[in-house]
Amino acid sequence: MSFAVFLDVDGVLTPKAVNLQFATMLGIEKELVFLEDRYANGTIDNIQFNKEFIPLFRKAGFTNTFAQKHFSDILYNTFTEELIQENLPNTFLVSSSPSYFIEQFSKKFNIPPENVICSRYNFDDDGLIKSCFSPSGILDKARFVQRKKQGFLKTIGI
Length: 158
What we know:
Elements: E1 3-7, H1 18-26, H2 29-40, H3 46-59, H4 64-69, H5 80-87, E2 91-98, H6 99-108, E3 116-123, E4 129-134, H7 138-148, E5 154-157
Parallel strand pairs: 1-2, 1-5, 2-3
Antiparallel strand pairs: 3-4
């Protein structure tokens, strides 16, 4: 039987959201929690979230180099590696997590780029986070799953 596993990252493969873990390292966890709460309760949308998120992380000095350097400091749930490895090559990451983490994560666990959707960020010439040029919202993730589940008899979403 051919089946696929569609996994979220924040709160599923990691005990705490990736950006929250980075914010803790940067000393801006309280500010991000306030912003995340407003997004979660619908007070702000994804566009407004990024209008506040980007300056917050820029001011704290967040760079792609920082993300790479601290990649190994991000905590995973104990079952993460086993869950992914057991289902390769039919493992898909369906997340709003940031590309500066997901790209490294997918390479580490041999998940091909075509099996991944995430929020895409870029950095300026000084290396500081610049923008989210492709956010991964609920509809984007749903469309991705609809496209990718074709050809599988069963799918599991976690």
